[in-house]
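Much of the work behind modern protein science is quiet bookkeeping, done one molecule at a time. The protein below has been through that process, and both of its lines are reproduced in full.


***
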Amino acid sequence: MFKRRVALLIAIAFLMSIIVPGFLSAPTKAIAASKNPIVFKIYWGDSNAEPVDVWKTPIGKKVEQITGVRLQFEFIVGSDEETKAGIMLASGDLPDLINAHNVVNKFIEAGALVPLDNYIAKYGKNIKKWYDSKALKKLKYPKDGHIYYLTPFREESDPLYSFAGFWLPIYVLKENKWPVVRDIDTYFKIVKDTVKKHPTYNGKPTIGFTALTDSWRIYVLMQQPLRLEGYPNDGGWLIDEKTGVVKDSYTMPYAKTYYKILNQMWNEGLLDKEMFSQNYDQYLAKISSGRVVGFYDERWQIQSAIDSLEKQKLYDRIPIAMPVLKKGVKRDRYNVVTMGTGAGISITKKCKDPVAAFKFLDRMAQEDILKLINWGIQGQDYYVKNGKMYKTAQQIQNYMNPDYRKKQGIGGNIWFAFPRPPFDREYPDKSGKISWDYSDQALEARYKPYEKEVLKAYKIKSFKDLFSPTWNSPYGYGWDIKLPEDLQAIQNQADDLQRRYITKAIMAKPSEYDKIWNEYLSKMKKIPIKKVIDFRQKEIQRRLKEWN
């Protein structure tokens, strides 16, 4: 009897070793389909991200079944990423994983993160499939040469829409006989004429031009002179794309000219009187109301407002991005294709099982999970025919509905922070693009009827056709250069001064504008910003040399 029991136990143990696909070596716990998943706490310090617990969605639950990992999220409250990081580091209360976003360098400098180099070499089977040696070289922290996070590829460029621009509603473009607005003088003339022609909408005053100024998001107001000069968004720095020479934008001559235009519009009542006091939600609500004529922004920040206008069927009020520049500038840099080195998910020194955590991150980059989080559940969100993934008309309709995607767990900025290839790359099995958004089927299906009418009016196939060709940056993004704390403090000082004085200058009486601007320049000269420029210059030159 005893021998029979022993034989039975051995047989069960053997079967379990086959059935349960554990792929972590002892002594770490197996990451596999399990009723008792490994639980990792993760802090999501990206204040851009909508605080949605994807692990509670149908797709999130399937990811847990596949990986044997459950994530417990803590989302940042508010938008002060730096203060929260300081509190966490001072207390030593760190989670297992962290998306430190804009302040990842604070955690690196504090020695709070685990270097990933050896893990990538030993366990990064899927990571190495997507990140070649050149890509990994870009992710090394310049100060010590280690990799602390695997940023998701940002080199994809949406083929349907421009990343940014100066926006005008469809009804305004139609009334003006579908112009391609390329210079700022024409743009603001259209804004003024529209307000004069349509002083109210739904019983409320029409807003000529507004701006997003809530906390760090005020950068979209700060970068407008750069965009008009034909520069990409490099975080407020003017970087010569050929030589890599860096200049600051704080004192660029055209900034004074541009903000003086806004000052005049403020005093004429054409600027939103609440634009310096409104928060992000209020800004979106105004665009969603359909009474805003013009603004500058990046599409990802206003997507929810566009979704809202579509739900209200206010199609003629939906804004379209225009490639606006200063008169005389020939080409824009609103669209950039490159691999960014901004933060992804890191493993902290307090992680209870860093090997298991890394293997989980590597597993997230495997094809089955990439299909799951980007395409959805097979048979429910897409089908496969002759080895090719596709969506039916109903599945496309579901996918195009942001509420459905959120409820189902498809896409979303939480998934996008995990290690992943570019969305426009193809799966190794040739079944389709990484994301359905970049499939041939999507190029036709994603455009809604009202958008197709606009495209037809402009005689173009994509809204990006209004802009200069997407530029491939040889140095990446200037905004993701990590500064040492002392230099970051200097830049913060300059940023704060810029925000205060530009706000003050725009709202001033016209007769006071020059005096305020000169005072601003005088105070800016006292800030040792050249130290920051020199550091950035050195890093840009390093990138140009090593990356190319």
The longest strand covers residues 38-44. Residues 485-507 form the longest helix (23 residues).
